[in-house]
Batch of 4 targets.
Target 1
Amino acid sequence: MAVINMWLGMIVLIGCIAGGLLYIASRQKKGLHNKTRHKGIYIVTPFIYERQEV
């Protein structure tokens, strides 16, 4: 019985790994992240301030 459970566990593990790899491959084909493309020029000013001496 232990050998059957070991084989069954191995089959389930291989199925999960294969399914995960297929899912990741399909997501990579579409692009992993839902990115928003902003059109235009953005100027980011740095927030640099000096600490006041006490």
Target 2
Amino acid sequence: MDEAPGKKRMKEPVQKAWIWWVLAALVVFNAPWYLPEGMIEPYIFGIPAWVLLVLFLSVLLSAFLHWVARSQWDILEDEEEAAFAEERRRKAEEAGR
């Protein structure tokens, strides 16, 4: 696939299999189906351990998605906005003539 010189290539995390595997694992293990039925104990600071586990995995899922969006996905937003502003400026100049 040939690209114009000086043009950045957009990164797509959807094409990285390891991201899907980590995401699937975090979603699957976020529901405590793998713990014994009716498990209430042990308590940690008065909260059942499974609740803390679900909260921890939820925060981990959010952090992972944030990291993927910030570091693995280059959406070229600044360049697109600059190009849009330039196009708008050019149209305004043409309309003013």
Target 3
Amino acid sequence: MAKAGEPLLREALEAMRAHQKAQDQEASLEEVERRRLRAESLYHEVVDFQLLATCSLPDLIH
């Protein structure tokens, strides 16, 4: 995962923590969902970056 770069990894991890915090603090459903989508999006961005870096990305990117 290091190839994704520290800033991207940190951003993805922080988004995951923010999502968990929103759940723990019983934030509104909209807020929890917004944070979940952000975390999921960043996670996929890291994975896609890794696949591109290793030339293993499928022809279709979702």
Target 4
Amino acid sequence: MRQRRSFGRSFQRAASLATVVAAILLSLGFYALQVAAQEGAEILPVSVFVGLAAVVGSAVNQPFRHEEGNPEQTDTGLYFLWKCSVAIAFALLLYLIFMAGMLRGGLFPEFRRTEEMFVSIQRFVLDIDPKSNADFAKLLVWSFVAGFSEKFVPNIITKLQGSGDRDDSDAGPPS
């Protein structure tokens, strides 16, 4: 009886996750068709490659993860799918952090047209791209790292939050 309930919960989680993944894939497919319909536009935005690099990073690190005693890890496929989803989310967040210029330096990618006025999400996705091939390569490397190391992006967020708190205290009280 206990195995039956466990299977039911695992199946329900898998079905829910499969629904979310299917919705995301359908959205990406429709987006790609819309973009492809435009003359001279890229079929796949940079964010798709960011997500793929994160999944590769997560997959490469999978054999090295040891989380013994975790009862939720009974379904390895579902666990791996969850880890890849988290990797994609972190890589996309890191991509936005780079685009916003919150991390700068020779190791980080730079982007074109970041100072232009916001017009639409479509223009945002299509117009802001790495300045050079080297910047695109840096973006893919950092996306891989975001997938490989689950603590990397949360640590960056914590450091950015700390630097933001210091900036707020330096500014003095609001007028």
